Hints:
This protein has 13 helices and two strands. The protein is mostly helical and 296 residues long.
Amino acid sequence: MNGTTKPINQKAWWLVLPVLLCVAFSAIVPLMTVVNYSVQDIISPERRVFVGTEWFAAVMRDDELHGALWRQLGFSLAVLLVEIPLGICLALSMPSTGWKSSAVLVIIALSLLIPWNVVGTIWQIYGRADIGLLGWALQKLGIDYNYTGSATDAWLTVLVMDVWHWTPLVALLCYAGLRSIPDAYYQAARIDGASRFAVFRYIQLPKMRGVLMIAVLLRFMDSFMIYTEPFVLTGGGPGNATTFLSQYLTQKAVGQFDLGPAAAFSLIYFLIILLFCFVLYNWMQRVGTQAVEEPQ
Length: 296
């Protein structure tokens, strides 16, 4: 060796440059714009007054925001409690091989292909008592169902609509996790005489931990940012029963044109999602680690 060090080629960074530019254009620049608006009072396009953290304090004192936040948390929690177990059950019941497996995968994934505004329109018609199958059937059963007049019916309809739309995503993720488990684990379980529940508890569930973590995070973020479906279905009503955080933000920014408070609330909204995702991720990591270390 001649003792000289070969210079490192840094040209590979040019390959990352387009990604950095896309991220800057689609995320960083809009975020900085929102930060700029959140500390100013936009009187007119030419006139702005710096107000510091005044809008943040005003937003935190807003009772309507508190109500929307609690409704949003309740909805997201209900989504996770229903869709995650239901998705696991669907994945476990799906055939693993053959043409039936392909057919079931296609059928289950159909709802994921429907645009969000079309989903809201479908359920808007489906729930009507005069022309909708669901509303007509419930009326025939003697159930007084009216998602446009009852806050409870509206909230449950939005929940069922979201479960119908997004449970297949959880099922597909869980199905992929199940198919990645080697057959040797099942063979060992059969030799040991393990029950079906024991196979699920000690083999399938730990091996699905990674995909379940992705499913929980995706469904929490999506449900926490839900806007189009309840807006099309109920318009946020009746009253404020289905007015979630995203609709409240839209009303602030577009309906009332309060750009300063809307920008401050957008940042708080963003931080709330990051905080909950961080807590969920660490909690699931801890639960998974304890499951691995638990003596079997």
